[in-house]
Design brief:
This protein has 458 residues and is an alpha+beta fold. It has 18 helices and seven strands. Bound molecules: zinc ion.
Length: 458
């Protein structure tokens, strides 16, 4: 797969293997050498390897590598072990192997190129990582894997661009390579700064890029908010992006190995829409703040980095978050209707016509309630626990409407059935919640006065 080439000649990855771990490693090498991988000479790669060893042998990085490359040359604990020399020998061997594949009889499980047969690869060299079918090989990972020297070398560099969440290294991946390149360049810039400032010399610091997120879900959304705002403005993002965190635990005793947190493109589309308006953005963060778990945690870190957030969790699970868009106590919507409409269309896949039908019917109902002054109808609709009682509330409103002597019907039969039994029916509770949100918005002036439980005239 080829990437678009920018008009300005910048280092660009030419070949994408399609495995996020290898591609990230190639990107790290390109950032370090400031050259496309294919243009790197053996000398360039050796220099990059030397730099990598200098970084990996710092106390901050060594600490990270126990869970990424256990027992590797970077962190061997045997007395008198020459970490520098042995790591150099290993990496230089891979660099030599890139151009020396003539005798190979096996092929790389990542990219299909002739494998590097001078050594067998174990989790010492390649974290128990991978995607797709590769994952299934973990239990029988006995005789080493066939990997080409290029992929094996790339994997050595990949952790440089990883992210830390929940105390573990995470690979950030996306369907859009431009996002990964932009993010990788940012992370690499930080590495240079931190290296220069001597931060890696203390084992108390993280080697990996760490923004101190305890919750991987919140970390994933944090990245999506950042990409949706900054990267969209830079023109790096397209409308349908997905963001994935591969959280890695390569400790020898850990059988789980990897957990995947995936933000679908529908959610990204919604998030990017919110982040691109200053008003919606601040309203969104205010809303999130109301839904962080209250449990005691790490008091030194802000809640949004450490606590479970139901909105994030529901979005990742594909469950509706309409409940968050209304405040039943204050009887107000928590977001403007246009946001809710966008949410229904982009995340819940509801078509515009249906959204419009629900809106028109709700506006008529709002008018009916205002004129009939039966304000507790709103509460009765909100309290409907099953479809028959919800339908019953609508019937009562149709009667109210007739009593008001309106000529036009409150709703046509077609609209009524379409709203309640439509083709893309996603559960009547969503219709009820949308209606309640719209009623709160339309009737907020009168409902606000009714907040104290002084019930209204029947
Ligand atoms: Zn390969």
């Amino acid at each position: 797969m080829l990437l678009q080439v920018d008009p300005e000649p910048k280092p660009q990855p030419r070949k994408i293997v399609g495995d996020p771990f290898i591609d990230t490693g190639i990107l790290a090498i390109e950032l370090m050498t400031e050259k496309p991988f294919d243009a790197c000479t053996q000398e360039d790669l050796r220099l990059a390897a030397d730099n990598l060893i200098d970084i990996y042998l710092t106390p901050a990085w060594k600490k990270e590598l126990y869970s990424i490359f256990p027992n590797s040359t970077y962190i061997q604990s045997s007395r008198g072990y020459d970490h520098q020399g042995r790591s150099k020998k290993f990496l230089y061997g891979l660099i030599d192997g890139i151009s020396n594949t003539s005798s190979s009889t096996t092929f790389c499980c990542y990219c299909g190129a002739p494998a590097h047969e001078l050594m067998s690869f174990y989790k010492t060299h390649v974290p128990l990582i991978g995607s797709g079918s590769f994952t299934n090989f973990f239990p029988s990972f006995q005789n080493g894997l066939s990997i080409c020297a290029r992929c094996a070398l790339a994997i050595q560099f990949a952790p440089l661009l990883w992210y830390k969440a929940g105390g573990k290294p995470c690979l950030v991946s996306s369907n859009n390579q431009n996002i990964i390149r932009e993010f990788g360049a940012e992370v690499f810039k930080k590495i240079r700064v931190r290296l220069a400032s001597g931060e890696y010399e203390s084992g108390r610091n993280s080697g990996l890029f760490d923004e101190k997120f305890k919750s991987p879900q919140n970390a994933l959304f944090h990245l999506a908010y950042k990409f949706g705002k900054e990267y969209c403005m830079k023109g790096v993002c397209r409308p349908n992006e997905s963001v994935v965190l591969y959280r890695i635990d390569n400790y020898n005793q850990n059988p789980t190995g990897i957990r995947i947190y995936s933000l679908p493109s529908s959610v990204f589309r919604f998030v990017a829409f919110m982040m691109n308006s200053p008003d919606y953005r601040s309203a969104w963060f205010t809303l999130l703040n109301r839904h962080y778990a209250k449990a005691k945690g790490d008091e030194e870190l802000p809640t949004w980095k450490t606590k479970y957030n139901a909105i994030h969790a529901f979005l990742l699970d594909g469950k509706s978050i309409l409940w968050a868009f209304k405040d039943d106590k204050a009887r107000i919507p928590t977001m403007p209707w246009v946001v809710i409409e966008w949410y229904m269309r982009s995340v819940r896949d509801m078509n515009q016509q249906r959204v419009d039908q629900i809106k028109v019917m709700s506006d008529n109902i709002a008018l009916c309630i205002r004129e009939s002054k039966k304000f507790n109808r709103v509460l009765d609709i909100a309290a409907a626990r099953d479809l028959p009682s919800f339908r019953n509330q609508l019937q009562l409103l149709i009667k109210d409407w007739q009593k008001l002597g309106k000529e036009k019907p409150l709703t046509t039969f077609d609209d009524y059935t379409a709203v309640l039994l439509p083709g893309d029916y996603r559960g009547w509770t969503e219709v009820r919640d949308l209606m309640v949100i719209r009623l709160y918005e339309q009737l907020h002036d009168v409902l606000a006065k009714e907040v104290e439980p002084e019930e209204v005239t029947e």
